[in-house]
Design brief:
By secondary structure, the chain is an alpha/beta fold. It contains 10 helices and 11 strands. A hairpin with a 5-residue loop joins β1 and β2. Bound molecules: 2-acetamido-2-deoxy-beta-D-glucopyranose (NAG) (4 copies) and zinc ion (ZN). This is Peptidase M14 domain-containing protein.
Length: 345
Amino acid sequence: KYDYTKYHPMEEIYRWMEEVERRNPELVSSTVYGHTIEGRNISLLKLGLENSEGKEKKVIWVDCGIHAREWIAPAFCQWFVKEIVDSYKTNKKLKEMLQNLDIYVTPVINVDGYIFTWANESTRLWRKSRSLPPGGSDCYGVDLNRNFNANWGTVGVSFDSCANTYCGTSPGSEPEVKAVMDFVGRMVDQILCFLTIHSAGQLLLLPYGHPHISAPNYDELVSVGQAAAVEMKKVHGMNYTVGTSPQILYPNSGSSRDWARLIGIPFSYTFELRDKGEFGHLLPEEQIQPACEEAYAGALSIITYVHDKPFTNGSLPDTAVATVTVSGVTMMIWSTLIAVLHTAV
Ligand SMILES: *[C@@H]1O[C@H](CO)[C@@H](O)[C@H](O)[C@H]1NC(C)=O
Ligand SMILES: *[C@@H]1O[C@H](CO)[C@@H](O)[C@H](O)[C@H]1NC(C)=O
Ligand SMILES: *[C@@H]1O[C@H](CO)[C@@H](O)[C@H](O)[C@H]1NC(C)=O
Ligand SMILES: *[C@@H]1O[C@H](CO)[C@@H](O)[C@H](O)[C@H]1NC(C)=O
Ligand SMILES: [Zn+2]
């Protein structure tokens, strides 16, 4: 019996993935979609049911563990899969959603970094990947959540390879990031929602991290986020704050959340799970269950909205990806003009 209230080393998570797939063949399948710099598999579990009409399904993306030390994130991805596996047969709404949607869950993207944090006490707070130091440096690792092709290298990053926010040598230079960009990019037209799970701070961040760009569906992103925060608070009374990164955390660039919205995925959020600073990335195991219960309620709230919009209400997804203000002039940007956006801001 797998203990979801403990943190697990990577080899146990890999074995758990195999076991979940083996026990639930009608719901779960797995895919290896990339390799880390040290050659390990980056794998996801796909959760979805056949629909009788055989119509094309939409996709929800959920990833965890892009920052190595944020152990509550992989714990959440495992919890999330367990909840769905345990309840879809009896929960009619969930079953309906799984007939219309496939949910792709990556429990750990930064596998090398995660393993490094388990190596010994002195490396427990490692954040980055384990890519080799660039010439003239002896500092390993890139901040994978600064390496995506989204206003790369502009704000909230460092070009010093020893810094925790080192953004790499070019957008997508890291194999872990390239793997996500290639896999998600290939099915962008199917993806309704991109959720990326981090800690800590109890925040729900929405696009964009760059202070000069805003999402055309900003108001809707805020209201869907706030509805999720209400659901999260109902579970254990915890406050989650909703906003863009510049509003409630700090400006940043190169994040997967911004990249997902920029390529045209209408809903994109970063969850910053518990806590608000007492334990930070060293969240005690006693808090895994409550943290995951509230985060599950929040994720399900967003997924339900995102599902109902096309499947119940019949609304078309948004196609514009950003409004940009340059020299006082506000422009609406569509995905065909992304190249312009990357150079203009
Ligand atoms: C990596 O994935 C491949 C399938 O693509 C599998 O055959 C192999 O055993 C996996 N490697 C490890 C170390 O799990
Ligand atoms: C901890 O792990 C790091 C990286 O593998 C290693 O350099 C260091 O010597 C280890 N420290 C201890 C106390 O084992
Ligand atoms: C949550 O936020 C509200 C409003 O900011 C505040 O009144 C309340 O004390 C907070 N609750 C907790 C548990 O932090
Ligand atoms: C669907 O339509 C109903 C009734 O107009 C509305 O209350 C609800 O917010 C809509 N839901 C979504 C996800 O658009
Ligand atoms: Zn993080």
